[in-house]
Amino acid sequence: MKEQILDNPGIIAFPPALYTGTLLIGLLLDFVFPIDFLPRSVGLVLGMLAIICAGLFAISAFRAMNSARTAINPSQPTTAIVSDGVFSLSRNPIYLSLTLLYMGITLLFSALWALLLLLPLLVIVQIGVVKREEIYLERKFGDEYLCYKARVRRWV
Fold first, then answer.
1. Cα(25)–Cα(131) distance, rounded to whole angstroms?
2. Closest to 60 in 3D by CA, of 78, 85, 79
3. What is the C-alpha separation between 68 and 53, in angstroms, rounded?
4. Can you give the pLDDT of all 156 residues of the chain as single tens digits?
5. Half-sphere exposure for 85 (CA within 13 Å, toward CB)
């Protein structure tokens, strides 16, 4: 039992909660201090495109992780390095999909404040989630993960 508790990357927070919380703050700021930065039609097209891409990345990543029988939730132990499918394009396709979803929503609502908060959010995700996961995976899988890391970019 104690080993299972230690067998995770110790991320700072559940990534979807980080994205959701930041998005809600940005949308609230946009409601209080509205700044339109895109024509409605451009925001709709770009926003929907980003959301569709986010969905495709997420579905592909979930399928690959389920096929490998490893946990999707980063607070649970990883049992395998998934390197096929969308994981051959990005080491973090789920975070990429969350970022695309976030961007899509900000574009749909033309929410400049939310878009501006994306950069600090990505810094937090990089330091508090991705780096911790990488350290964990290097420790747990050694050369297997290092070879994968050398072949595949972090984001895209």
1. 25
2. 85
3. 23
4. 444 457 999 999 999 999 999 999 999 999 999 998 999 999 999 999 999 999 999 999 999 999 999 999 998 999 999 999 999 999 999 999 999 999 999 999 999 999 999 999 999 999 999 999 999 999 999 999 999 999 999 988
5. 18
Secondary structure (DSSP) of the chain? -HHHHHSS---SS-HHHHHHHHHHHHHHHHHHS----S-HHHHHHHHHHHHHHHHHHHHHHHHHHHHTT--SSTTSPP-S---SGGGGT-S-HHHHHHHHHHHHHHHHTT-HHHHHHHHHHHHHHIIIIIHHHHHHHHHHHTHHHHHHHHHS-S--
Question: For 115, phi and psi rounded to 5 degrees?
Answer: -65, -40
Output Rg (C-alpha) for the chain, integer angstroms: 17
Distance of CA 86 to the CA centre of its chain: 13
Q: Are 77 and 139 in contact (CB under 8 A)?
A: no
| CB-CB neighbours of 40 under 10 Å | 10
Q: Which residue reads 């050369």 in tokens?
A: 143
CB 106 within 8 A of CB 23: yes
